[in-house]
Amino acid sequence: MAESNEIVYKALADPTRRLLLDRLFEADGLTLNELCDQISMSRQAVSKHLNLLEEANLVATRWQGREKFHYLNPIPIQEITDRWIRKFEKGNVRFLVDL
Description:
Low-confidence stretches: none
Oligomer: single chain
Number of helices: 6
Largest sheet: 2 strands, antiparallel
């Protein structure tokens, strides 16, 4: 479990990968070309970022003919939220944040 979390943290640490996840949140099921449209980066570089996101299980893919579609998988992010954020939302911490 710790090793799988490490790759998720590594994937989320990079701003380009977070941007790709944001794009998939806005419009799920995008191709590599569609993901590259608004990023000033080569297709190969974006592809490398997507591969790391796939390894972290943050992105799932599906082939349809010659097109590879990318889909956001929010489960690893939810697991991090449950493990590292939710426990601090209780009691006095929530009160201090609300101030």
